[in-house]
Amino acid sequence: xxxxxxxxxxxxxxxxxxxxxxxxxxxxxxxxxxxxxxxxxxxxxxxxxxxxxxxxxxxxxxxxxxxxxxxxxxxxxxxxxxxxxxxxxxxxxxxxxxxxxxxxxxxxxxxxxxxxxxxxxxxxxxxxxxxxxxxxxxxxxxxxxxxxxxxxxxxxxxxxxxxxxxxxxxxxxxxxxxxxxxxxxxxxxxxxxxxxx
Length: 197
Description:
The protein has helices at 2-5, 9-25, 31-45, 59-66, 69-72, 74-91, 99-115, 119-130, 140-154, 158-170, 178-196. By secondary structure, the protein is an all-alpha fold. It has two domains: 1-56, no CATH class; 58-196, Alpha Horseshoe (Serine Threonine Protein Phosphatase 5, Tetratricopeptide repeat). The radius of gyration is 17 Å and the shape is globular.
């Protein structure tokens, strides 16, 4: 995925073509392997007429977000935010990018805005994501709800934080990195319960 981000699309394409065979040999898969398998399958199946760089949407940025990289790497997150904002106009091209791609972009943008302290902007973007019904990328809505819970918690609005966290935990299932998010949600809800005492 990093090769693709660097613009080395031929090299990325050749490497992606080998991944399904490697994953088939490995037997059981963890959440990261399942995620990568889906991204590779999507890359290989997308219309051959599309430029290779358009077959996947910001995969390295997406992984950085999912692994809490925006929070941990605040200096880099500002650069990611600039990159995401510049990419918004390109993502509007419906021939190259799907509605799901645009929803993922909004989640990434909301996460980046949150990480750099632009709370009101982040809430506005994440609220838009939480209202969406993605076709494939089911993870975006629960992750957006979780981010909203954290934003409300940081502002001292415990009831709204709890509402968003419970909504993310109970109303969605079967998405990428579900286990990872459920641990985060459980910790958040436990913290919120301790604040009520």
